[in-house]
């Protein structure tokens, strides 16, 4: 009978999320990951089987956090336009950690070779797009948003803005450029 784990797996997933977000998947070695988590490499493998399994768990945890934050930010009686602007800025990492989006980063690094990453990313993108569609439709019904694109098309455009701007933020794009992009995307609604 093996010894019980001396760490909390859920906490390790959360810490691993931060490590992968800072470094990327390829630049994170199993030993470096174990060191950052404060556990032995054997414990990492005994609990998660592989670096890849821990990575996909971290991505799933990230997507759950992002989806919850998205719903919380878009719910409420306040005007839709400023809430959409706040969501786009938050989801790109603008003015915050400057790391971009973990899922966008992972897809850029691994999507062609990693079906699990692609599936996790597409599931998050679907949720984002649907939340945007609902918010845009609501804004149109109240007369706050007057664009002519169908809400689903406008939501797809905002999703593309988040993905592209997230990459720009990660690459060190200036605050001024990011503000212009976000402003233009929201004003088109």
Description of the molecule:
- Keywords: DNA-binding, Transcription, Transcription regulation.
- InterPro entries: Homeodomain-like_sf (IPR009057), HTH_TetR (IPR001647), Tet_transcr_reg_TetR-rel_C_sf (IPR036271), TetR_C (IPR011075).
- It comes from Micromonospora musae.
- The protein has 189 residues and is mainly α.
- The protein has 9 helices and no strands.
- It has helices at residues 9-23, 30-37, 41-48, 51-74, 80-92, 102-110, 115-142, 151-170, 175-187.
- Helix 4 (51-74) runs parallel beside helix 7 (115-142) and helix 6 crosses helix 7 (115-142).
- The termini are far apart.
The fraction of residues assigned to DSSP E strands is under 5%
State the CATH superfamily name of the domain at 60-187: Tetracycline Repressor, domain 2
- The first-level CATH class of the domain at 60-187 is given as Mainly Alpha
- Given as residue ranges, the uncertain stretches (5+ residues, pLDDT < 50) are 1-5
Average pLDDT level: 90
Give the number of DSSP strands.
0
